[in-house]
Design goal:
The chain has 248 residues and is α/β, with parallel strands linked by helices. It contains ten helices and seven strands. A seven-stranded parallel beta sheet has the order 4-3-2-1-5-6-7. The longest helix has 16 residues.
Length: 248
């Protein structure tokens, strides 16, 4: 949205270019510094999925929010990362070394961090992010999404989790979750961990307004564990798994 010019304003009262720039930045400020995006290494069969990835990247740029993602340069991962990078936003890709040959083709953008395994990838993506968004994807996207939802359920974090439900892609998943609530496997209050919307702009705005619930003790334990992991030269998978089991 452009700045409105008031015709009656005198030259002495007019905003300088620097003032206009500052106004534009402040109007698009966000509570998030970085958003983690889960998405497919495939673009899918519908153009709407690619369009949504590009629109999400543009929305992050407009709000001055950096991107954390799985590090791939193909599919929806490639589209969202390239869009943020071209818009001047910070991009951090985190990828297991074993997948670099499969998910990295062509030119990569931003910062790419290689890690030892999938568990470390997810832990690092979570540590560097203030929010999570899932675009359409397959098994990997679903697994990453459900893990951060479970972490929120346990109180390990209180970061918002959003579904970009492009063309109803996640309708069946949301129906399943509603069924789990109805049958007593998920508490009604925990149904609201997930925020969904059909467009990037609407979803990000909902996430900006999200109010988390509960879990302070577990969250504090998680933060201590993450600080300990940062001090290690390697990544102790056994310790991390023991922490998660203890918290559950």
């Amino acid at each position: 949205m452009g700045l409105t010019t008031i015709p009656q304003q005198s030259p002495s009262m007019a905003e300088s270019p620097q003032q206009e720039q500052n106004t534009a930045v402040s109007s698009s400020s966000s509570r998030f510094k970085r958003v983690c995006v889960f998405c497919g290494s495939s673009a899918g069969k519908r153009d709407s999925y690619s369009d949504a990835a590009i629109e999400l990247g543009q929305e992050l740029v407009a709000r001055g929010v950096g991107l954390v993602y799985g590090g791939g340069s193909i599919g929806l991962m490639g589209l969202v990362s390239q869009t943020v990078h071209r818009g001047g936003g910070h991009v951090l890709g985190i990828i297991p070394r074993s997948l670099m040959g499969k998910e990295l083709t062509g030119e990569t953008v931003g910062e790419v961090k290689a890690v030892a395994n999938m568990h470390q990838r997810k832990a690092e993506m979570a540590r560097h992010s203030d929010c999570f968004i899932a675009l359409p994807g397959g098994y990997g996207t679903l697994e990453e999404l459900l893990e951060v939802i479970t972490w929120a359920q346990l109180g390990i974090h209180d970061k918002p989790v959003g579904l970009l439900n492009v063309d109803g892609y996640y309708n069946y998943l949301l129906t399943f979750i509603d069924k789990a609530v109805d049958d007593g496997f998920i508490k009604p209050s925990q149904r609201h961990i997930i925020v969904s919307a059909p467009t990037a702009k609407e979803l990000v705005q909902k996430l900006e307004e999200y109010v988390p619930v509960g879990g302070e003790l577990a969250k504090n334990m998680w933060e201590v564990e993450q600080q300990q992991q940062q001090q290690l030269v390697g990544f102790n998978t056994t310790t991390a798994l023991q922490t998660e089991v203890a918290l559950s």
